[in-house]
Amino acid sequence: MHWVFDNKISFEKRALRLFKEQSQKCLPYHQYLNFLKTDIESISSLAEIPFLPIQFFKTHSIITNGKKPAINFISSGTTGMQHSQHLVADLSIYEYSFRTAFELFYGDIEKYRFIALLPSYLEREGSSLIYMCEDFINRSKHQQSGFYLNNLDELSEIIKEDKPTILLGVTYALLDLAELGPFQLNNTIIMETGGMKGKRKEMLKDELHQTLSNAYGVDLIHSEYGMTELLSQAYSNGSGRFSTPHWMRVFSRDIEDPFSLTNNGKTGGLNIIDLANIHSCAFIATQDLGRVYTDQTFEVLGRFEQSDIRGCNLLVQ
What we know:
The chain contains 9 helices and 14 strands. By secondary structure, it is of the alpha/beta class. Strands 1, 10, 11, 12, 13 and 14 form a 6-stranded mixed beta sheet that branches. Strands 5-4-6-7-8-9 form a 6-stranded mixed beta sheet.
């Protein structure tokens, strides 16, 4: 286990130590800090750490000096758009992160039949989500665990079998499957991720979850929050708020002043520290809009319409 995962050390100490390392060893981050005229040695708290804008993953190779990528994860998106790339130097770190985080929230994967309904991800190369789900499928050791692409009729019969199941699906595909219902699933966790991908009209989160709850006969809809640029995931058990593993923390930045953090519960841009990003950059200013609360849970409200937006033209779901 790498020291960043050691929760006997405070999160702040781990983060500051990794910040000092990455400020020197990750060239794009080093250059960004120089541009901001950051006095690296004077940084002594989490609130003082500058966060790298996430769009740097589209334009630069974010990797520790001297490291070679074991794999290159590539973000999803529409044809013609520029994709983010995450050069991962050590796959064992990613595997430790996603396995341990899942177990923290849901227990041993072997307890579940794990079904992945991720057509838009399966149809392209380099998805970190597919890599994670493939590992879960293999470790679940259940004959019916697997990826389901266009065989929704078969899947609609499989999920009716009363077995402990996690059905993780991109949102629009879960809605497609729901139309073959209604179902009454007693031992199944429905977990949505990834949005509509241009396949369906966007829906408000509450409306979406109510629609899925009614269709599948479950009380709550879980959610997975992750992205190409992160090697960790946050999970929501249906409360509308996401929780993170102990090596990940989310902050809210002021919409008008991206270098200032906001008060708890106030809407702002989401900044993330993901200590699993050991060999890239752990300090990322995302394009997501949300709120962070005193118990360190957070909710996602939507996205900034443009990467350089500060206070106007926000696209909120």
